[in-house]
Amino acid sequence: MLRIATWNVNSLRVRLPHVLDWLALAKPDVLALQEIKMQDEQFPYEQFQQIGYQAIVSGQKTYNGVATLTRFAATDIVKDFPDFVDPQRRVLAATISGIRVLNLYVPNGESVDSEKYQYKLAWLAKLHNYCQQQLQQHDKMIILGDFNIAPDDRDVHDPTAWAGHVLVSERERQALQGLTDLGLVDTFRLFTQDDKIFSWWDYRGGAIWKNHGLRIDHIFATQALAERAESCEIDKKPRKRKRPSDHAPVIAQFRLD
DNA sequence: ATGGCGTCAACATGACGA
Fold first, then answer.
1. Which residue from A44, A68, A111, A134 puts its CA 20 to 30 A from A55's CA?
2. How many other C-beta atoms lie within 10 A of the C-beta of residue A181?
3. Phi-psi region of A39 (alpha: psi -120 to 50; beta: other; left: phi over 0)
4. Using one digit for the tens of pLDDT, what is the confidence trace for A7-56?
5. pLDDT in tens, A162-217
6. pLDDT band for position A257 (cuts 50, 70, 90)
7. Environment class of residue A1 by beta-carbon count within 10 Å: exposed (0-12), middle (13-18) or buried (19+)?
8. What pTM did the predictor assign?
């Protein structure tokens, strides 16, 4: 059995108590964190070590930064897409228990007419190439993180208001479809076709209490793993605590032999 | 139409996020 989760914590410094509490309750084997907003030297390795997790980190001051906590050894660590020089720390690949685990913080994109949107699309093209290359070497692969893309209108609280905007725009959705075309499966949709289930809610306007959100945090898996998937769920409880991240953790469970 | 909320770096307020 493998329990693996993803959570954009929006500052690990601020959210450390929530992360420690959630690890104790949810007991994942692996937790992919995004937006840790700290450098490697500031990472609280000891506090995770004390509860049985080792950490691999690609940190960055102020913005971005990803880390993967794991109960099992992590090898073959990669922190950049090949041939893509990027000071922004958004990628962390490792092999854990024979599974290639790719932790991602996909760029936000700001708005569809911005430079940052072009960066997002270019970044997603590099991701596609990297996945294609990795899939040739690994039949068991999990790609998880904050994708900053809602796959379809079921994943959007108000599709009319959001139509054409960044996070739901056609070109981003096509990029995500490109991963599906490579054989990667959105594990959440193996278990429910319900609409209005979200992983992110705006801090403003009490969005969590009105369930005004988006499903933008995902756990994709290759077919070899998808057929062993037992669940994929979003845990809203941490989002309802005081001083929360604006994202909730997503956790999937796989049967392994 | 704008800001709405939170974090960071810094010490005022702008950048950034989604």
1. A134
2. 11
3. beta
4. 999 999 999 999 999 999 999 999 999 999 999 999 999 999 999 999 99
5. 999 999 999 999 999 999 999 999 999 999 999 999 999 999 999 999 999 999 99
6. confident
7. exposed
8. 0.97
Covered bases, chain B (protein CB within 7 Å):
4-9, 16-18
Strand B closer than 7 A to residue A217 Cβ: no
With a cut of 90, say whether residue A87 has pLDDT above it.
yes
- Residue A110 CA to nucleotide B16 C1', Å? 9
- Tell me the backbone φ, ψ of residue A226, rounded to 5 degrees: -55, -35
The distance (Å) linking the CA of A27 with the C1' of B2 is: 43
| Nucleic acid strand B within 7 Å of A107 CB | yes
Residue type for A250, please?
V
pLDDT at A89: 97
pLDDT for res A45 = 97
A6 touches strand B (CB under 7 A): no
Neighbours of A229 (CB within 10 A): 18
Are A229 and A253 a contacting pair, CB within 8 Å?
A: yes
Q: How many angstroms is C1' of B8 away from CA of A62? A: 6
- Kindly state the tokens that stand for A242: 């005081």
- Distance between CA A55 and CA A73 in Å, rounded? 10
Which residue do the tokens 């599974």 mark?
A99
Rounded CA gap, A179 and A183, in Å? 7
Residues of A catalogued as catalytic: 105, 146
